[in-house]
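Hey, does this match?
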Amino acid sequence: MANKPLIYFLCTGNSCRSQMAEGWARHFGKDKIEVHSAGIETHGLNPRAVSAMKDAGVDISHHTSDLIDPEILNKADYVITLCGDANDKCPFTPAHVHRLHWGFEDPAKTTGSEEEITAKFHEVRDAIKERVAKFLEEEMNDRL
């Protein structure tokens, strides 16, 4: 049980992208991995992110917006940043931690009609889904 790989998704506010990544990783990894997400700030869970994930059949409504926990950061196998701000400001990680950066556009910054904003959330959600699935397949295939 202690040898489950630990993946820590980080973003600026832990409200959208890191939450979606955590949701997809939990969905695909089931109980074979430990997954957390956090931010360098907490902006609360974005209702549009919750809705976009619900539309895809993944419930993240119970997630919370959390600050980076140094204990989780130091025991993580993978720390994955989803925005440049988090990549630049993420605290130092020990040598054993694999740091990856996946830059995704922030759907919360989208302007326009409700339809355009929803479409952007779905676009980012689907891009994160694809990247998480590929990562788990490539990095965790022997464990999943």
Notes: The chain has one domain: 6-141. Residues 12 and 27 are 23 Å apart (CA to CA).
